[in-house]
Design goal:
With 263 residues, the protein is mainly beta. It contains three helices and 16 strands. The chain has one domain (1-7, 40-263).
Length: 263
């Protein structure tokens, strides 16, 4: 089973940094690529006290040069096309190559916060582990940027509260399903300044899929940094053509999109 979709409708309820370097394909959109002094951003309304939140204008791993209009109009070649979809991260992992849509897979859970390889870590069957890290670590990503956060300098993975604050009447935004994603307007629908593509997800369960990709163009699920303590999951911002779940929940071994917010 993929995740607990629309879980808001039911009850869900000192870091040790190991330095690791790994050769991965550089597409110029990696968060480690800090050769650019600025990253394209977009600002939307928020029901939080500040009233606004600034996000990167693209998913991690996607083409950062495309405008919102170009992203909406783009037709992916296939489910592996990251041009607009971007990468799919397991919750809490650094950018090490596992997030690529064509990365290799392994059944071996990591004993450390940094696995030391770029494989997507699978579970061992329907009742197997649902977390890529053995015993887990609830603090790999957080409301304060951590060493494991994959976002570029000045950005981090949003909290669940931040995601929820840009949705609904109280946010001051208007959101609309486009047929391939979710677009957001801050001015009542005159213009749309943010686009979240329905990038699908990558499954962790060997018996179910063996790390295959699902629901591209149908489902958009975006990690938050918020994880219930002593659980195997974390909260998501999820949408389909049926609606939006601003507090969805998914197992940490699943691969979902990351859209960074400014610190």
């Amino acid at each position: 089973m993929k995740k607990f979709f629309f879980s808001t409708l039911s009850s869900v309820f000192a870091l040790s940094l190991i330095f690791y370097s790994c050769e991965i394909e550089d597409d110029g959109n990696s968060p480690e690529d800090n050769s650019h002094s600025e990253w394209p951003t977009t600002t939307v309304n928020s029901s939080m006290p500040a009233g606004k939140l600034t996000f990167l204008a693209f998913n991690l791993g996607a083409d950062k040069t495309m405008t919102v209009e170009e992203q909406i109009a783009y037709e992916p070649i296939d489910k592996y096309d990251a041009t607009v979809y971007g990468d799919l991260y397991q919750w809490g992992r650094i950018t090490d190559g596992h997030e690529k849509r064509t990365s290799g897979t392994t059944f071996t859970q990591s004993l450390t916060d940094i696995p030391g390889h770029g494989d997507f870590i699978l579970g061992n069957g329907a009742r197997g582990p649902m977390n890529w890290r053995y015993l887990g670590n609830d603090y790999l990503w957080g409301a304060t940027k951590t060493p494991y956060d994959p976002c570029p300098d000045g950005f981090r993975v949003p909290t669940q509260e931040e995601w929820a604050s840009i949705y609904g009447d109280e946010s001051g935004n208007i959101g609309e399903w486009t047929g391939n994603g979710y677009k957001i307007s801050t001015d009542g629908g005159t213009s749309y300044t943010m686009f979240l593509p329905a990038a699908g997800y990558r499954h962790y369960d060997y018996e179910y899929s063996g790390g295959l990709l699902y629901d591209q163009g149908v489902d958009g699920s975006y990690w938050s940094s918020t994880a219930p303590l002593k659980s195997e999951g974390a909260f998501l911002f999820t949408f389909t053509d049926r609606g939006v779940a601003p507090k969805d929940y998914g197992y940490r071994a699943l691969g979902f999109s990351v859209r960074c917010v400014a610190d």
